[in-house]
Amino acid sequence: MIACMATGATPYYVRAEHYAAETDGDVAEGVAEISELPTYPMDSPDSQQVAVLDFLDSEGAAAKRDLIAFGETEGLPFVEQGADSRKGQYRRLDARILDPLEARGYVDSEQAGRTTRVLLTDRGSDTLRAFRYLIE
């Protein structure tokens, strides 16, 4: 059911006509009823956020300028939309990528002088494992 919620598929349960305990077989037989299961909204990161998580997973901690360079190389929307200035790119990186990821506990940031380094958290690593399909 969780996989269906994450991918937009419809989960269902099939009730068998006869179960293994009722027969001499090892498995259930026949279809008595098919029921659609309820789904609940799942707040998953978007594909560009997953791409940044994947970059942090492979590169380790990264400076914001490295994340912008990665976004430019990969053609991620946060860099391409309104590429007016470097300051604008930093604002879009924060607003569309880092702020949402940090609010969910997927990344942490630390200041080192004028440089902000972004690190993947354990929760972010788990999220990347669950949603890596969005970038594959």
SSE arrangement:
Elements: H1 2-7, E1 12-15, E2 33-36, H2 47-59, E3 62-63, H3 64-74, H4 77-80, H5 86-103, E4 107-112, E5 115-120, H6 122-131
Antiparallel strand pairs: 1-2, 3-5, 4-5
Helix pairs in contact: 2-6
How is this structure best described in words?
- The protein is of the alpha+beta class and 136 residues long.
- It folds into 2 domains: 2-36, no CATH class; 47-135, Arc Repressor Mutant, subunit A (Orthogonal Bundle), CATH 1.10.10.10.
- It is built from 6 helices and 5 strands; from the N terminus they run H-E-E-H-E-H-H-H-E-E-H.
- It has helices at residues 2-7, 47-59, 64-74, 77-80, 86-103, 122-131, and strands at residues 12-15, 33-36, 62-63, 107-112, 115-120.
- Strands 3-5-4 form a 3-stranded antiparallel beta sheet.
- Strand 4 and strand 5 (115-120) form a beta hairpin.
- Helix 2 (47-59) packs across helix 6.
- The protein is elongated, with a radius of gyration of 22 Å.
- The two termini are 21 Å apart.
- The model has no long low-confidence stretch (mean pLDDT 89).
Features:
alpha+beta, Arc Repressor Mutant, subunit A, 3-stranded antiparallel beta sheet, two-stranded antiparallel sheet, 6 helices, 16% strand, elongated
